[in-house]
Amino acid sequence: MDDFVSIEKPLVVFGCAYLSWKIIKHISSFLKLEKEPVTVLVTGAAGQIGYALVPMIARGAMLGPDQPVIIHLLDIEPAAEALNAVKMELIDAAFPLLKGVVATTDVVEACSDVEIAVLLGGYRRREGMERKDVMSKNVSIYKAQALALDQHAAPDCKILVVANPANTNALILREFGPSIPEKNITCLTRLDHNRALAQISERLNVHVSDVKNVIIWGNHSSTQYPDANHATVHTSTGEKPAIQLIDDDDWLKTEFIDTVQQRGAAIIKARKMSSALSAASSACDHIRDWVLGTPKGTWVSMGVSSDGSYGIPQGLIYSFPVICDKGEWSIVQGLNIDEFSRQKMDENAKELMEEKSIAHSCLGD
Amino acid sequence: MDDFVSIEKPLVVFGCAYLSWKIIKHISSFLKLEKEPVTVLVTGAAGQIGYALVPMIARGAMLGPDQPVIIHLLDIEPAAEALNAVKMELIDAAFPLLKGVVATTDVVEACSDVEIAVLLGGYRRREGMERKDVMSKNVSIYKAQALALDQHAAPDCKILVVANPANTNALILREFGPSIPEKNITCLTRLDHNRALAQISERLNVHVSDVKNVIIWGNHSSTQYPDANHATVHTSTGEKPAIQLIDDDDWLKTEFIDTVQQRGAAIIKARKMSSALSAASSACDHIRDWVLGTPKGTWVSMGVSSDGSYGIPQGLIYSFPVICDKGEWSIVQGLNIDEFSRQKMDENAKELMEEKSIAHSCLGD
């Protein structure tokens, strides 16, 4: 009998613990105890990426299905009415997680107490414009945004720059937001990362969630280097290197890279507008993985401040493979870089150095 | 000792059952056993509601976060390139739940084996056009769609018509899709329902998820009757009737109704385009509640085939309060209808009878 009891004991303890947990859960749900809302800023929110992004945030795609949110929408004065329409529609959709919406053209009001900032607002290059003129417009936008975030955002606000030139806009932000932790300023290359996963999935006729660990190195421009050398594919006989399954070095070095680099242009050609749905979705993926962590064994691409890893000049905002845990990203170390990759990575660093000096010249440095 | 064992036994059984369940769950997840994908058709998918809707479907907002989906996108030939861009972006977003995308201008290919159909495609009234001319265009579109769904969709396909005139488009669909169960044809008034919830929430300064059981009666047109007489509000001291908390009969009978009826026009005025984000989100809510059930004690508004409830002529597609369970809607019975409501409800029935006869005259009946 004693033996029988000793086997039962752990189960009893386990059962009691489980029941207690269930009871606490029911009481919490009865009392409607829920998480405190997180305040998310979206700039350029009257634009088409904003319009695609805000319902995703309000549905929990960015911060999780049990995380209430307050959304701050910022845009410029001429877009004020359209911005207000976005607010009206967010209200009309009766999202259970959405605890508040602020639509404003005042950058200080928009930035106040925000814990996540997704910066879609920027100045787009128009036909016939010089690169320097566009940079000059964006430098002043991001300088102003940096000052407002520096002074009014929550101290640990996580920032994602989506607007092009994304890496350099993020760099300006860092330079003019001295109290913002360097680790909290990032730019989006997840869209390119997802596109690279999708191209491999299509090529191998496997589902995209079975492909992982591609890398986007460098600049979120058509110079970016999509790298499949370390990617793996989940198969019925385990994880296999993507390059082994593809077995076509020529495709990997040409068509694959070109397709990912030029995908934005291909969407514009077909849609007569730039990608919004996929950009918004990738922005959610970027923040979600940053805040909630990357799945075990999986890395993602993020534009972050270089610490000199892989020989990339320190301080450049450069896209690296990163893993995220407890709200912190860290660059994946120790990957073998072949000669082809080295050259592409250096090209990106060079382009970003140039952008940096153009930006500085706009500041009159 | 015997007594002790008799208390422990249920816990042991419980513990064992729980452990077995956990083990099965882990094995399933290891073997990647997952639900079969559900095929969802979206017509008019190159339009702006389609563009807002498809990422929501692909993220699980419509059928649940563990339900894989295949999306069929249909649009007309002139929109083929834009439609293909939507497909490209869905692929680029690397949605884990999205198991396939078909973009086509062929109605038979689009309708084949679909289990959910969201019909956004229709002909919009242009300035100076007679109501009958618009109806005539939509009658031919919905007749063709009915024939294709009747012959090629899955036998239990659930259909949601969003395109205006939504109720009458749904009626045409029913008349030309004889094998489609009558209960499977619905039209969207959930957007109006959500707008009504939101207006009460704003008025009382409570969160929208604390308000429930408004009703949209009748036609998805500006004649619709938003009815707050049976709505309740969750407060710290229990559920309270909304009309008691609002305590302003004049507001409820005028401003509240006007605001909900005219909200679509207000969005168009501010946005210079009709509502897409909130329409798409409400379409997700409609299908989700229909398929997965309405929460206990909560009803929603859906345009469905009248069975004569509340004196509404049998066979009209009319918006009623419904509860949903196991994939079936049923009209909430026994609500008290005051004289004001009766008149508004009859006005809607009258308008829908007129629309029906215009539609029939377009068919040469």
UniProtKB/TrEMBL annotation, chains A, B:
Keywords: NAD, Oxidoreductase, Tricarboxylic acid cycle. Its EC number is 1.1.1.37. Gene3D superfamilies: Lactate dehydrogenase/glycoside hydrolase, family 4, C-terminal, NAD(P)-binding Rossmann-like Domain. Residues 189-356 form the Lactate/malate dehydrogenase C-terminal domain. Substrate binds at R125, R131, N164, R195. The keyword Nucleotide-binding does not apply. It catalyses: (S)-malate + NAD(+) = oxaloacetate + NADH + H(+). The active site is at H220 (proton acceptor). GO terms for biological process: malate metabolic process; tricarboxylic acid cycle. GO terms for molecular function: L-malate dehydrogenase (NAD+) activity. CDD domains: MDH_cytoplasmic_cytosolic. Pfam families: Ldh_1_C (PF02866), Ldh_1_N (PF00056). It is an enzyme of class 1 (oxidoreductase). Residues 39-185 form the Lactate/malate dehydrogenase N-terminal domain. InterPro entries: L-lactate/malate_DH (IPR001557), Lactate/malate_DH_C (IPR022383), Lactate/malate_DH_N (IPR001236), Lactate_DH/Glyco_Ohase_4_C (IPR015955), Malate_DH_AS (IPR001252), Malate_DH_NAD-dep_euk (IPR011274), Malate_DH_type2 (IPR010945), NAD(P)-bd_dom_sf (IPR036291). NAD(+) binds at G44, A45, A46, G47, Q48, I49, G50, D75, N138, V162, A163, N164. Belongs to the LDH/MDH superfamily. MDH type 2 family. This is Malate dehydrogenase. It comes from Phtheirospermum japonicum.
